[in-house]
Request: fold
Amino acid sequence: MKYLEVGGIKLFWTGHDGFRIEHGKTVMYVDPFRLVSPVKADVVLITHNHFDHYSKEDVRKIVKDRTLIVGPKELSGVELEFNCRGVFLEPWGEYKSDEFGFDILGIPAYNVNKFRAPGVPFHPKEDGKLGYLVNIGGVKIFHAGDSDNIPEYSKLGKYNVDVALLPVSGTYVMTAEEAAKAAKIIKPKIVVPMHWGEIIAGRSEAERFRDILRGSGIEVVILERV
Reply:
């Protein structure tokens, strides 16, 4: 499937953790990385400062006059490099844009059992790295960023998430099994596996995730890269 269409929004997977969301005239990217077919963006969401999420080269391809960059506090000031506007959130911080027709809630993203060295997680909680719950056109999309299945996900059930974008590769993020458990906690209508096809893991992990959730009542959609 080339894109997912839900309630008037179109969701494209651009590879790894990257997505393009289109609603009316608004184009939003999340974590653009190694873009194949870049489109100029109104909004760019960046989950954290690692090179495969904050790719200066890719951001430069898609920004235009008045593009809005949204990121965690650790990225404050990057908008100046692109002559853009910037909004930088802490976990559970909120932002509403009447201009582009969306509101956003920053969701914590961190590791609980993935370590670069003993006791040193790849994504420490204290860094304030983010996932995002985006409400655009009345469709609620949750992008987990780079995260494990964390306790904070228990709070997401009350938001009636339409689409959840969850990493499945393991090593730096949730495994397919951990992501399936997270999906059952978040309770989205549809879930799209991500964090595969670049750097680590392949389609088999996305398919294993789909197989684990078969019969759960949660629809799993594996998108083709665009």
Observations:
- Helices lie at 56-62, 176-186, 203-213.
- Residues 176-186 form the longest helix (11 residues).
